[in-house]
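re: that chain from earlier
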Amino acid sequence: MEKTKTCCFFGHREVTHNIREKLTSIIEKLITEDNVTEFYVGHQGQFDSMVYSILKKLKTKYPQIRYTVVLAYMPDEYIKELYGEDTIFPDGLETVPKKFAISKRNDWMIQHSDFAVCYVYKVTGGAAKFREKAEKRKLQIIDVLT
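^ sequence. v structure.
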């Protein structure tokens, strides 16, 4: 049996470009041409929200895919209501200090992925840092802004 191919996403909190159509196209190509069936996304900003909504919509067209919101913090009632069963809270994060939780969660996503779709428009910040980490770990990088 073939190994499940996985993809994670890193992007700045604020989406300052019109990228929905291109992002949808990138995700569809990952599904149809690269056979990616598992997607990991965070939940900290506009980019993550956009990715989640696209994946949720594409699930009806491609029922073989699975998408999971990877949490950085123990889920509260709001998160449970918002995402339902579409979440995972990786083992070990419960002991991580809050200021390092997002970084540890992002490291987890890199370790469990083959591809990374990145929305990076400035050289500073977490999105740029984790794009670089994903590249060093030899993930196949797909930049939204190219």
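The two ends are 34 Å apart (CA to CA).
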